[in-house]
Amino acid sequence: MNYIIEKALDNKRIFPEEALILLREVDWTEIVHAGNEIRKRRYPQNKVGYTAYRIINYTNICSIQCSFCSFCRSRENPESFVLSLDQIRQKALEAKSLGVNQIFLQGGVHAGLPLNYYVDTLQMLTQELHVEVRAFSPVELVYIAKAHHMPLTDLLDLLKKAGLSSVPGAGAELLSDSMRQKLSPKKLSAKEWGDTMILCHEKGLPGSANIVFGSDETPKDIIEHLQVIRDIQDKTQGFLTFVAWTFQPQTPHFPIRHVTGQEYLKIIGLCRLFFDNISHIEVSLLGMGTSLGELGLYSGADDINSIVIEENVLKSHGLTTIEEAESFIKNAGFTPYFRRFNFD
Ligand code: SF4
Question: Which atom of ligand 1 is nearest to the CA of 63?
Answer without folding.
Answer: 4
